[in-house]
Specification:
The chain is α/β, with parallel strands linked by helices. It folds into 2 domains: 3-172, HUPs (Rossmann fold); 185-274, 2-Layer Sandwich (Pantoate--beta-alanine Ligase, Chain: A,domain 2). The protein is 37% helix and 21% strand. The chain has 10 helices and 9 strands. Strands 1-4-3-2-5-6 form a 6-stranded parallel sheet, sandwiched between helices. A 3-stranded antiparallel sheet has the order 7-8-9. The relative contact order is 0.13.
């Protein structure tokens, strides 16, 4: 049975009883098989596993879905228990931000204004601030994050390196439905026809990956991905579809690369990405 802590004091006491290498998995709840994969990965690489469940208000902008974001704590706790979590920290906003919204937040730097940051201004300030606070509160040796939120993962790695936070960041591959749709807590908002339309994202990534495997250069890979997306359901509106290196740095890409896509399906915004490799032309 996973131990449950709601307050900072309860967390500190329970954390003191965890021995060996501790891994943390940070979530906003509404857990699914993707989160289970994170917890299992932590279980395999750490001696003890701590899961946080907190719907962070700092990363929701005006008009976004903070109020309707699903809160399913009982189901979440059962998933944590089943996946092998030793401790769950599920704080209130007052516990996380006892003085109200913090006046000082972590700046993500230039990358925080690109891609997701361009579509959701201030989003990464909220993400990095809560991640840093939770790293301080949970004091893990390892922290596990899904590759589906690839830009977030890259920024967390940069923050930990730049601010000398003594933790190892571990990326865990995206978990998908059998038809290729990336698992997301927001998938539950999709109607049945929207669920089908959302496959345009994974179809674009698959087409780009196939072009890369066939030896195409970056321009042809990106063009193939755009064609596949455009051939999908017109109800899916593209936000961005880009090809970049694994660190999301600008410039020509050779070798390991990443295709990233974001799109609206009705009023639900979804993201996805895929690793590819671009071999240099002889």
């Amino acid at each position: 049975m996973s131990e449950l802590a709601h307050t900072r004091a309860e967390l500190a006491a329970a954390r003191g009883r965890l021995t060996g290498r501790v891994g943390v998995v940070m979530t906003m709840g509404a857990l699914h098989e993707g989160h289970e994969a994170l917890i299992r990965a932590a279980r395999e690489q750490a001696d003890r596993v701590l899961v946080t469940i907190f719907v962070n208000p700092l990363q929701f902008g005006p008009g976004e879905d903070f109020d309707r974001y699903p809160r399913t704590i009982e189901t979440d706790l059962e998933i944590c228990r089943r996946a092998g979590a030793d401790l769950v920290f599920a704080p209130s906003a007052a516990q996380m931000y006892p003085g109200g919204e913090p006046g000082v937040r972590v700046s993500p730097g230039p990358l925080g204004d690109d891609l997701e940051g361009s579509s959701r201004p201030g989003f990464f300030h909220g993400v990095l601030t809560v991640v840093l606070k939770l790293l301080h509160l949970t004091r893990p040796d390892l922290a596990f994050f899904g590759e589906k939120d690839f830009q977030q993962l890259a920024l967390i790695r940069q923050m930990v390196a730049d601010l000398d936070v003594p933790v190892e960041i571990v990326g865990v591959p995206t978990v998908r439905e059998p038809d290729g749709l990336a698992l997301s807590s927001r998938n539950r908002y999709l109607a049945s026809d929207q669920r089908v339309a959302a496959l345009s994202l994974s179809a674009a990534l698959r087409a780009g990956a196939e072009a890369a495997e066939a030896g195409s250069d970056g321009g042809a890979v990106l063009a193939a991905a755009h064609r596949a997306f455009a051939a999908g359901d017109p109800a899916t509106k593209l936000d961005y579809l880009v090809l970049t290196d694994p660190a999301l740095e600008p410039g020509p890409v050779v070798g390991p690369a990443r295709l990233l896509v974001a799109a609206w399906v009705g009023d639900v915004r979804l993201i996805d990405n895929a690793a590819i490799r671009l071999d240099p032309r002889p």
